[in-house]
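Reply to dn_fold:

You asked what the input looked like. This is it:
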Amino acid sequence: MSRDYDTWFVTGCSTGFGRSLAEHLLDTGHRVAVTARDTGRISDLSERGDALILPLDVTDPGSVQAAVERAEEHFGGIDVLVNNAGIGYFAAVEESEEAAVRRLFEVNFHGVSRTIHAVLPGMRRRGKGFIVNLTSIGGLAGFTAVGYYSATKFAVEGLSESLRHEVEPLGINVMLVEPSAFRTAWAGSSQESPIVIDDYDATAGAARRAYHASVGRQAGDPDRAARAVVAAVHSPRPPLHLLLGNEAYDTAMAKLSALRAEFEAWESTTHAADFPESGGQA
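and this is what came back:
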């Protein structure tokens, strides 16, 4: 195992991806700051390896700063940050409640931003680091009933791409992990709008029902995903976009094909929007 990225800080370790990732890291000799809002749900991991169990609420700036400082003090620095903590929300766009949408962005986008801001000073001082942001295939393509959830993931994608340009010259890498449906608690624990508009029953309504029916039957294996993420971080040339799952790959490739076809169909209109090359106005 490469020792370049030995010490990890992982958010949202109670269940799902975060739990699987923390277990795999500890089992393979990494040092891990294992975090969750309720540390009682992760306390058993302290017996598994070199784990530092920390309380963390990504919506609380003081909690984020305190957890990062404690991890840096304990381990001497953080090599890899994994932003995994997140929540879901099922509703058509028109059915969505403003308070729930704001909460969604507070956790899924601002929570990611807070941890990035907290770890970057230490990574810059050491001249190395790796930031891994878990988004979703819903961060590359929109789906019915999760419009605002996808919006939070699209936002993290844009932030991460810009961040990579800024920090790569400083020795810091950034990677987006974009899974499709995995056998985690996400679908079963996601909030859902009580507002139901009949006109959306065949689209968002059908998607809501499908999400509920998928619980425990999703194709993706969180343990395999954890191994894939760690292998990608330690690889000689880590990707910016790491798709996980057959559905993620198929969806992403279909989106690429659709974008290319649309861009090419409207190419002449696109070019005609600039001033003529002579500099004059048409």
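The CA atoms of residues 140 and 154 lie 7 Å apart.
Hope that clears it up.
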